[in-house]
Amino acid sequence: MNLALATLPDLFYSIASKSTYNTHMRRSVLDQRWAGYAVGALSVVALTLLLKIVGSHVNAATVSLALLLNVLFIATRWGSLPALLTSILAMLCFNFFFLPPFGTFTIAATDNWIALLAFLVTAVTAGQLSASARRRAEEAETGRREIERLYAELRDAFERASHAEALRQSEKLKSALLDAVTHDLRTPLTSIKASITTLLDEARDEPPVALDRDSRVEMMEVIDEESDRLNRFINGLIELARIEAGELQLRRRWGAVDEIISTALSRAEPITRNHRVELEVEKELPGVRVDERAVSEVVYTLVDNAAKYSAKGSTIRITARRAGEEMIEMGVADEGPGIPSGLRERVFDKFFRATRDGDVTTHKPTGTGMGLAIAKGIVEAHEGRIWIESGYDGKGTRVLFTLPIGDEDVIDDIHYSEAKVSAQ
Amino acid sequence: MTDRSKILVVDDEPQLTRVLRTGLTSRGYDVRAAADGQAGFEAFNDWHPDLVITDLAMPNVDGLELCRRLRAVSQVPIIVLSAKGEEKTKVEALDLGADDFVTKPFGIDELLARVRASLRRAKTPPVNEATQTSLDSGDFHVDLESREITVRGKPIHLTPKEFDLLVYFIRHSGKVLTHRTLLAALWGGNYVEQNEYLRVFVGNLRKKIEPDAAPRYILTEPWIGYRFEPDPAT
């Protein structure tokens, strides 16, 4: 059965090729010039016979027109020389069979001479004209096919080149991403492995280890913190993959901007403990129809970055204000080293870190390189915009984002609305 | 053991420097940490450690640059911490003068073993190679004048090039030697790309000195070079 199925297409193919072959053969035989002479001669004979059979009903004008049509047909199909032969034969037949005295090549009446001559001239001229029209059409067709062929070749070559280039770029990107991911997974793993092997040596009583209680606690703290870091990194990867796949499910509902900010700030409290946090929220801000959890995550990420990349004791300023009729603008500013304007777009690329990959000089710990990419995904899913400016007085970094206020007619008391969005 | 050797750890990952500081201190070493190459170099000039452990990828002055700067002023042993996939940078660091490397993630015992080996090597008093007449290292005894070598007490016959290669290995016991370093030392600067020379000679040397098919003395460091271990029992 399988065999039969497998051979069926082959069979079709073979039949198709044979039929193409036959058509091709037929065409190539008919295309020969001698075929034109033969058909020309035979058609004149056949037409003469036919006209002779119905002879009593046709006059000389009808005969000449019928023969003329035949010449035109031969000229269009086979060109000028077969048409010339057909014209001469047609003239002879016309004279012999249809001009009195019948059965001879002599012509009695003068006007019949004129008719014969007119027939010959018309036949030859029309034949030559239609043959040359055919030739020109053929030449135009050949030219068109050649242009089409060149165009197709050019397009194929171009497609091949751009495909190869895209592949190269994508391979390069993949390898850069892989490097970034493995680095971020391996770094905490290295601290964990070094801690655990130190503790193991001590537990196995392998001299000479002298770990006091504080050192043991420190090792375990490192293991704890680095496990959390690995977990954060993996969560970030999942979140990012979800955003990139367009699977971010927004649960939009009406919420207050100050509540969103305070949720983020209370979560960020352990990391902002050594900073001064200032809040500037415009009075009587309208509510926003957003996914509160997601927007709070954006604010948290920005505050976390601000704390991470600025000195202890410096100020982190969080602002929220109305921007026009339909938008709210929120911002987080720090007094850190700032981000050069050339890198302000790139920091939103995943795994890009200004401190490690750019030229910002700092000894501060680096993040996962995913926070801003995720924040951008969330903001854009809300049809907002996120960007970076210099901080206050030109110092530090200020990350700003906008969110649309939302349609006030929508009421969410009954159920959550869900939107499937594509963030990238 | 109360070896108060001073070790400088240079890494931009605060968690790792915390662990190494505690782990090494608990073994009796005196440890200081620096967060990048620049700070590391300053700490070196300030403190004169006996050994430097450095990461390769760091902001500002990276591990390679630190190796370069340290080698310009000192012969202090350097161990680089590197990740799989950083072979090119690792080779570069070794060519610049690093003595050894440990691949992340590593167990503390592996690092400690490398630390001990590097410190031991550094503490061996320097000899004047020109006036030296014999070499003793682990299972190997070399008479440099008669050019005779015994391994585990048994004499072996080597070609002149094999002899030179083995003497070079013995003189740099425990140290990771890149293909490039070996080729430059034995064949000269024009041959540093001819890895196949080295493969052939190391192969022949192994046949003559190794007791088993699996090498004990001349160990391969994949993609990097070789490490000579004169006394595998320890």
Explain what this protein looks like in three dimensions.
The complex is a heterodimer of chains A (424) and B (234). Chain A has 424 residues and is of the alpha+beta class. Chain A is built from 10 helices and 8 strands. Chain B is of the alpha/beta class and 234 residues long. In chain B, 40% of the residues lie in helices and 22% in strands. In chain B, the strands form 3 sheets. Chain B has a 5-stranded parallel beta sheet with strand order 2-1-3-4-5, sandwiched between helices. Classes of the chains: A alpha+beta (424), B alpha/beta (234). Chains A and B meet through helix 5 and helix 6 of A and helix 1 and helix 5 of B.
Quick rundown:
Chain A is α+β, with helices and mostly antiparallel strands and 424 residues long. Helix content of chain A is 62%, strand content 12%. Chain B has a five-stranded parallel sheet, with helices on both faces. A four-stranded antiparallel sheet of chain B has the order 6-7-8-9, covered by helices on one side.
List keywords for this structure.
heterodimer, A: 424 residues, alpha+beta, Helix Hairpins, 10 helices, 12% strand, disordered N terminus, B: 234 residues, alpha/beta, Rossmann fold, Arc Repressor Mutant, subunit A, five-stranded parallel β-sheet, four-stranded antiparallel β-sheet
The CATH homologous superfamily name of the largest domain in chain B equals: Response regulator
Instruction: Indicate the radius of gyration of chain B in whole angstroms.
Output: 18 Å
Largest sheet of chain A: 5 strands, mixed
The helix fraction of chain A, in percent, is: 55-70%
What is the alpha-carbon Rg of chain A in Å?
45 Å
Q: From the coordinates shown, what is the CATH architecture of the largest domain in chain B?
A: 3-Layer(aba) Sandwich
Kindly state the number of beta strands of chain A: 8
- The ordered string of helix (H) and strand (E) elements of chain B is EHEHEHEHEHEEEEHEHHEE
Shape of chain B: globular
Largest interface: A-B, 35 and 31 residues
Give the low-confidence spans of chain B: none
Strand fraction of chain B: 15-25%
Using the 3D structure, state the CATH architecture of the largest domain in chain A. 2-Layer Sandwich
The fold-level CATH name of the largest domain in chain B is Rossmann fold
Task: Going across the biggest sheet of chain A, name each strand in turn.
Answer: 2-4-5-7-6
Using the coordinates shown, work out and report the CATH topology of the largest domain in chain A: Heat Shock Protein 90
Count of extended strands of chain B: 12
